[in-house]
Amino acid sequence: MTQEAQEEPSTPGAGGHHHLAHTWEEARQAAFDAATPIPAGPVSLELALGRRLDQDVVALQDMPHYASSAMDGWVVNGTGPWILVEPGVPLAPHQASPIATGGLIPAGGKAVLRSESARLGKDEEGLPILMTGGTARPGEPRTGQHVRKAGEEATEGDILVKAGVVLNPAHLALAALAGYDELVVQGKPLVRLLLTGSEVVQHGVPVPGQVRDTFGPQLPAVVGMLGGIAGGQQRIGDSYAEWLGALEDVLPEAPGAPDLPADVVITTGGTGKSGTDHLRRAVAELGGRLVIDGVAMRPGHPAVLAELPDGRFVLGLPGNPLAAMMALSTVGAPLLAALGHGTLPAVQEVPCGTLLEPEPGRTRLMPFRLLYGMASPAQHTGPGMMRGLASADGVMVVPPHGVQLGELVPAFPLPWGLPIPAVPDPAAKTKPRSGARTGKPAAKPAPAGPVDWSALLG
């Protein structure tokens, strides 16, 4: 498909049907409104990292659930010297047995004498006994010393992690310590990627007529940054049979969950209306409906969002990489946010660093660099380019009527970038700095006449 075909606005079809593309704002809202948050469900600890907890994690029993040794050494009963007995047997007064860190304190065990604070000797009859020595301090070991008591971290029923928290590695370790294999987390969309194009190569330098795959390396990561779970990818050619078969195959290759159907299928290419563009036809044959059929923006047109009868969404991205990323930001980000219990991604304002001429009827998405606090359009931002986006700080949403120099323009951050700095409030007054306020003497007035800079020159 040519770049021109990708970028032209919707035109009447062969049957005379004329479709009016959504505006950029309408498309974002339509994508967000089309989805219902995915219900909460259990996932294994291995898949729970970064998920939002839906139910409190409570202690199933006392933690620790038994008294254990905090040191390698000897568990003892009473004062020494101690008669040695076999490990694990109940201890009578003045008896001791060897124990390792984490070992179960046997019945009768009162304290643990560290290995470096003990020495072995013999009694009058030549039998082995344990005595304090080495680094032992007077009175060591005291009752309870170097013993981890049962329930000292939590008692049964205590809340260990409150619902609503985003799970980090320490939360998962705590849940494992408490005996959990799964945690109930808020739903998160599982996304399968359907990459198309017989001219696409995955390795090496492409020759004329070929293009390198740009979607395989970036889309799974971007899906994760937008709140989805990348559930594998499939590559197909340009035939209709391949398209239809791929959309019918609902099972993604999701690590740890191979039998779960995708919530969203993201396709690349095939969103135009030429003879080699099959997305709309395949959706229709499967009984789906079009939620969004084109967005009046550039780059990023034509973008398609459809819903299939089984509840899956199909997001069709244009075949050019920058156009696809703009369509994903416009339609995919709100869709994934809605499915994942999120809010519509925020748009803020930045001062524009140049004059942008009007382009009636179409919103322009311009990657920009922040220079001296103002958004300057990046270079190398053709629909098939990625160089400008790779160094951008965000994307300006340029309205059809254009933007004046210094005028505030809507913008959104990149999924992998830093938040866009807030525009300072011009109404906020800067407080005067004075020596009286800070308690420091006022600065001396600058001397009249020329300034001697020779000291700075060394």
TrEMBL record:
Enzyme Commission (EC) number: 2.10.1.1
Cofactor requirements of the protein: Mg(2+)
GO molecular function, one term: metal ion binding
Pathway: Cofactor biosynthesis; molybdopterin biosynthesis
PROSITE patterns xref list: MOCF_BIOSYNTHESIS_1
Composition skew (Low complexity), residue ranges: 439-450
MoaB/Mog domain segment(s): 192-338
Organism domain of life: Bacteria
GO cellular-component term (any): cytosol
Region named Disordered: 425-458
InterPro entries hit by this protein: MoaB/Mog-like_dom_sf, MoaB/Mog_dom, MoCF_biosynth_CS, MoeA-like, MoeA_C_domain_IV, MoeA_C_domain_IV_sf, MoeA_linker/N, MoeA_linker/N_sf
Matching Gene3D superfamilies: MoaB/Mog-like domain, MoeA, C-terminal, domain IV, Molybdopterin biosynthesis moea protein, domain 2, Molybdopterin biosynthesis moea protein, domain 3
Transmembrane spans: none
UniProt key word Metal-binding: yes
Pfam families in the record: MoCF_biosynth (PF00994), MoeA_C (PF03454), MoeA_N (PF03453)
Catalytic activity of the protein: adenylyl-molybdopterin + molybdate = Mo-molybdopterin + AMP + H(+)
GO biological process, one term: Mo-molybdopterin cofactor biosynthetic process
Keywords: Magnesium, Metal-binding, Molybdenum, Molybdenum cofactor biosynthesis, Transferase
Sequence similarity: Belongs to the MoeA family.
Function summary: Catalyzes the insertion of molybdate into adenylated molybdopterin with the concomitant release of AMP.
Protein name, UniProt field: Molybdopterin molybdenumtransferase
